[in-house]
Each structure stands twice: as structure tokens, then as C-alpha cells.
Amino acid sequence: MSASEQSSSAARMFAVARRDAAVLLSYQFALLVRVLQAVVFVVTLYFISRLVQRPAVLGPYQGRYFEFALVGAILVSFATLGLGSFSQAISEEQRVGTLEMLLGSPTRLAVVLAGAFVVPLALTGLEVVAYGIAGVLLGAHFSLSGVLLALPVLALTIATFCAMGILSAGFIVLTKRGDPFALIGTQATTLLAGSLFPVAVFPGWLQPLSKAVPAYYGLHGIRAALLTGAGLRVVAGDAAVLAAFAVALLPLSIAFFAWCVRVSRNAGTLGTY
Fold first, then answer.
1. What pLDDT band is residue 190 in, cutting at 50, 70 and 90?
2. How far apart are CA 141 and CA 29, in angstroms?
3. N or C: which end of the chain has fewer CB within 10 A?
4. Which is more confident, 236 or 3?
5. b/e for 31-49, b at 16 or more Cβ within 10 A?
């Protein structure tokens, strides 16, 4: 892709993002409510942590449940973002009757999808900042040196969530309803990956199933970096697995979404709701 094509793609992506931002900013009270919900949830986790007094099962994470659960809550926020933002955007475009025009434009599908992700990512970032500030004010302690290692692991985890979210958006285009991957992915992240409790509490036969969930590796790597100050050698394994998931799933999901668009366009149902 030439420099001029890259510039044009970026301009089109941010055009989609600017439109979404204009809509979002017209509902400022909703933004405030979302931030307040995040703060209330962190306070709830804090008081729950007062009941969990350094259990042995949290030994690998310095025995601190508050920080353990706070990292899990942050990752669930990003899971909700990646798994649901694309299908929600597609559903809204269908509802207002602009989907066929948007997907029928010369803009590549990947650019359209990226543009639809910018504003939800910024909104989730605001929510996560509220989590972090409230957590620190309530006494949460994280390894500052681990932040640089945690960020790439988080980015790779979000990439795997986005792949599943694009698959879900493809189903929305094709069937006009249903969101199977978002539901399954969110529940798997919350339960199987161990977002709010360690996988070690599962029965022995269930624990291996957790390792089939990409979020498991994201949680393990981020917690190792932020809670224990683990180095690159520990975190690299989780990052490698997540990279493999992302490399395999992202092209597959985009190809599936493009196929769904072609099928719907040929059937004359692309713009219907």
C-alpha cells in the first residue's frame, strides 16, 4: 500500500470515528454514569476483598485479592469492548439504514471496522482509568516496572477479543440478529479464564479447559507483570500464545465478515434490519 493510500485509509477510518464521537458526546450524562458505575464497582471489589484475607490460593499473586480482581475487572471491560463493539456498530447501522451505504463504499472493510472501534476503545479507556484511580485511592499496589510488560500483553489480548467480535459482527450481517461469540467469549473470560477468582479453585478436570481461552493467558501475563513484578522471561510465554491466537483469528474473522457481506449483498438483505 502506497503512502497516499495509507493516508486515505487513515482519513476514512477517522471520519467514521469522528461521526461516532459526535453521537457519543451528545449523551454526556451517559459518559458520567459509566464512570460512576466503574468507581462503584471498584469500591464493591474493595469491600469484598476485606472478606478474603490473603488465601493460600492467591500466593502466586502476593495474596492480594483486591488487585487480583481489579486486573480481572479491567480485562473484562476490554473483553466487552472487543467482543461487542463491532456487532453493536453493525446493528446500529442496520437500524438507521446506513449499513449498505457504509459497506458499499470504496473503503476497505478493515478500515471501516477499525474506524468503528476507535470511539468504543476511547470510552473503555476512560472507564479503565476510573478503575485504576479508584483502585489506587483505595490502596491497590501495582509494580510500576511491570506496566511496560503488561501493555503489549493487554494489546494482544484485545486483538483476540476483536477477532471474535468481528466474527460476531459477521453473524449480525448475515442473520440480522444473534450475537453468539460475544456471549460465549464474555462468559468464558469471566468464568473460565479466572477474571475474579483463580483457576486453581476449579475441579482438576475443569482447569485444563481454561487454557483454551485466550483471556487466560492475558490475565496470567498481566497479573504476573503488575502484581509480582515478573520479568520478560515469565511474561513472554503468555505473549507468544496470545500472538498465535491473534495471527490465526484476525485474518480469519475479517475474511468471514467479508464473506457475510458478499452473501447479504447478493441476497439483497445487506441494508435490512
1. confident
2. 31
3. N
4. 236
5. eeeebeebbebbeebbeeb
pLDDT tens per residue, range 67-83: 999 999 999 999 888 88
Contacts made by residues 55-58, CB under 8 angstroms, sequence distance 24+ = 57/198, 57/200, 57/201, 58/198
35 has pLDDT over 70 = yes
Distance CA 226, CA 229 (A): 6
Sorting pLDDT into bands at 50, 70 and 90, what band is 20? low
What H or E segment, with its residue span, contains residue 44?
helix 28-51
pTM of the model as a whole: 0.83
Cell of 92: 446500529
Residues across the chain = 273
Inter-residue contact 115 to 13 (CB < 8 Å): yes
Neighbours of 217 (CB within 10 A): 26
Q: Which residues contact 261 (CB under 8 A, 6 or more apart)?
A: 103, 109, 173, 270
Cα distance between residue 182 and residue 141, in whole Å: 31
> Which amino acid is it at 159?
A
What integer pLDDT is reported at residue 104 of this predicted model?
64
Q: All 3 cell numbers of residue 135? A: 483502585
- Cα(42)–Cα(29) distance, rounded to whole angstroms? 20
Under 8 Å CB-to-CB from 223, ≥6 apart: which residues?
A: 61, 68, 71
Please state, in angstroms and rounded to a whole number, the distance separating the CA atoms of residues 184 and 231: 32
Convert the pLDDT of each residue in 217-243 to its tens digit: 999 999 999 998 888 888 999 999 999
C-alpha cell at 212: 483454551
